[in-house]
Amino acid sequence: SAVISQKPSRDICQRGTSLTIQCQVDSQVTMMFWYRQQPGQSLTLIATANQGSEATYESGFVIDKFPISRPNLTFSTLTVSNMSPEDSSIYLCSVDLAGGPGELFFGEGSRLTVL
Amino acid sequence: GENVEQHPSTLSVQEGDSAVIKCTYSDSASNYFPWYKQELGKRPQLIIDIRSNVGEKKDQRIAVTLNKTAKHFSLHITETQPEDSAVYFCAASGSGGYNKLIFGAGTRLAVHP
After folding, report:
1. CB–CB contact B96 A96 (8 Å)
2. Which of A42, A56, A96 is opposite residue B106, by nearest beta carbon?
3. Which residue of B has its CA nearest to A34?
4. Contact: A107, B43; criterion CB under 8 Å
5. Which of A47, B17, B65, B107 is spaced 20 to 30 Å from A87 by Cα?
6. Which of B107, B60, B63 is closest to B85 using CA atoms?
7. In the predicted model, what is the mean pLDDT of residues A6-20?
8. Residue B21 backbone dihedrals phi, psi, to 5 degrees
9. Three-class DSSP category at A91
């Protein structure tokens, strides 16, 4: 298994600002995934972050809005830029220890509320 | 594009009854099908998974069946208990070379004592 720490766990943000979410894993992993879970909804993949390469974004998500860093094999950040109320959501970091496809371990999530 | 449909969206059963949740997927290249349970305010956690070379897998009260020809798979929970109450998500592996998972919309299961 994996221990995944996310910070912040929750935050209240003002419209137009940006927030960076950090994800720290207790072991080295190749693939890290960022998901969004809107209230009462499913998990939607934002992007895949591999160390040493640029993140791969899913349809509907762009780098300017959700820039991602992956400086090493245990850490990643997701920034939500120029936030609007529609960005209010839980953002989850996840890892696949097996190198995929396999079990995803999720962080506890970062709950963002945009006013 | 890749899509996973999940039914029903809500399911209410009496304790001790069985519960079945069904999913269909669109990508014929999908080869990994996990099920996650998410309790209120908690992170999703894997409860069972199946790969495309297997038709059925069982773990105590939980079983998953896979029909690759029809592109659907199902979760079966027997002898349900109140602690089974949660939201259940199915998922299917996607293409693209980096093994992502595409999740269904979720099923809210309520088990009544």
Report:
1. no
2. A42
3. B100
4. yes
5. B107
6. B107
7. 97
8. -125, 135
9. strand
pLDDT of amino acid B96: 62
Which distant-in-sequence residues (6+ apart) come within 8 Å of B69 by Cβ? none
Å from B113 to nearest chain A CA?
Answer: 24
pLDDT in tens, B21-77: 999 999 888 999 999 999 999 999 999 999 988 899 999 999 999 999 999 999 999
Question: Does A44 contact B44 at a Cβ distance shorter than 8 Å?
Answer: no
Give SS3 for A7: strand
Contacts 24+ apart (CB under 8 A), A52-61: A56/B96, A56/B98, A58/B100, A59/B1
Q: Which of residues 50-109 of B touch A (CB under 8 A)?
A: 89, 93, 96, 98-106
CB atoms within 10 A of CB B14: 9
B97 has a pLDDT exceeding 70: no
